[in-house]
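job 3f2a | input accepted
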Amino acid sequence: MGDVWSTIKEGVSSLSDFLWTYPLSIILIAGGIFLTIRIKFFQFRFFGHVLHQTIGQIFKKTKQKGTITPFQAFTSALASTAGATNIVGVPVAISFGGPGALFWMWVVALIGMATKYSEILLGMKYREKNKKNIWVGGPQYYIKKALGWKWVSTAFAFLLMIELIPSTMVQSNSIATQTEGAFGWPVEITGAIMCAAIALVVFGGIKRIAKVTDKMVPGMVLIYLAICFYVIFVNIDQIPNVFGLIFTHAFTPISATGGFAGAAVAQGLRWGIARGLYSNEAGLGTAPIAHAAAKTDHPSRQALWGIFSVFIDTILICTVSGITVLVTGAWTEVGGSDASNMINIAIGSEFGDAFGGSFITVFLLFFVITTIGILVFYGEKQAEYLYGLKAAKFMRIVYIAAVFVGALGGLQFVWQFLDLILAMVLLANIIPLLFLHKEIAELTDDYVNRVYKKRTKKRKVELFDEEEDAS
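job 3f2a | predicted structure (471 res):
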């Protein structure tokens, strides 16, 4: 039996590696480039406008239809990506793919902005109200309504609902092992704490999840960045060498050094793209589920948060994490099996080992609670779409139970299928997304011509009037 299971695991692992190295890499990059062209490089041309309409409008109240504020929708979606994938995932990618993996993360992010913008755009257009009078949406809705591909929408919802079980287990296990190593907490205690905290959040629905994330996520991100920036500043002399490694080994192999085992270009590509996707989830179709509840007057206006979230998540947080482990040399001190400890070592090199381990552990605990909270919400919405509100409540219990089981390290054989199921979820979303390119382009043009240009013209008139009054 053991030999059979080993064969299955090897087969699943080989298939996952193949899918993420070649087909998915091509689809994600080519698809992102295609969407970027269709929206006329919107994420680059209007990036200043994106910043003004997102971070510049945080405290602005809106009377548009929706359940939560645009910023709350953003922090809810960001909660599912900011955390373990940024803090632990980046060092793992560098450990197995070399410094060049960071370059491919940037590539995925820059073109992924168009992908995430597009899926949120469609999610907003095709959202609807459920029996509780709450706005719901996501790929399953636009796939069914816009294309009529009911079986694909069903497949997406079912696969994502199932994928979130091992996903929550992996998240809870990562923090349970961290707290056990840092503080000596039994994994059962950590599992129980997380279950209780997550239950308090998710049983309040999207409104409570949004209230928690918009308070916790921004503060945690800022503190983490401040600590990492200090470490980078202390080692500022290493920056030229680090960027040399990143750009050189994105296209050439790197040999073994210290605890680093070396990596081929294909490994850098595979790990950079996979972890880049894990980091910002562009193309997975999860973000539209959270954003569908937002108050907005135009689908594109809310979709701007998708561009901004990819920038924050990958271009900023992941880059800072990666450079921190590179400038301190932590990436050469441990092997792949201990890659998750790289950031602890990097921060500990300036603040002391005890602080490094404790700081990351505490932050991961808070990040994982908010991450799992929104993942449970995503899973509930798939169950609701497929089977109704009662099924959503049942799956909520299943996910919370999975948190505890995962903390104990149980059912690890399920984890082996995570990458494979994730690949199928991505394909079920990205292919329909590409078929809807015409609609994406038309909605974007409508926003530029009817909203952006009107606002720009109005602002010019206001400035002219101010100059006239001054003279």
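job 3f2a | The chain has a mean pLDDT of 83.
job 3f2a | closed
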